[in-house]
Amino acid sequence: MVADLQAELDGIIAAQNDDPPDDEHDVEGSSVGFERARVTALLESATANLVALDAASERIGAGTFGRCEVCGAAVGEERLSAMPATRRCIVCARASTAESGRGPLHG
Which residues pair with 38 in a beta bridge? Predict the structure, then answer.
């Protein structure tokens, strides 16, 4: 997936370099910019997921996979099934989200 996204992004960039869009006068110019931003975001997300999975693999080797990095409790089978690269149990993940002001626990 990462290689496919990188190839798609490279194609968009090459097409822009060959025939740069005139965003002011070309209706397609904004579409190309949007597409480039979309593919870039997908590529960044896929790359981050691979890094997280590599880290999870390292935790397996170290014998710490499935343990919360904050409190040491078991992460839980259901959570690991849904998010294999997760580093925190649901309690610590919720607390972290609340502290950052990004979740429903923020008050």
Answer: none
pLDDT tens, residue order, the chain (107 aa) = 888 888 988 888 888 776 665 555 555 556 888 888 999 999 999 999 999 999 999 999 999 999 999 999 999 999 999 999 999 999 999 998 887 776 554 33
Quick one: 54 and 9 in the same domain?
yes
The total of structural domains in the chain comes to 2
d(Cα 103, Cα 107) in Å, to the nearest integer?
9
What distances in angstroms separate CA 107 from CA 2, 20, 66, 92, 99, one per listed residue?
A: 38, 48, 30, 17, 10
Domain coverage including residue 35? 1-65
Integer Cα distance of 96 and 55 in angstroms: 20
Task: Give the phi and the psi of residue 67 in degrees, each rounded to 5.
Answer: -110, 140
Distance in angstroms (rounded) separating the CA atoms of residues 86 and 89:
8
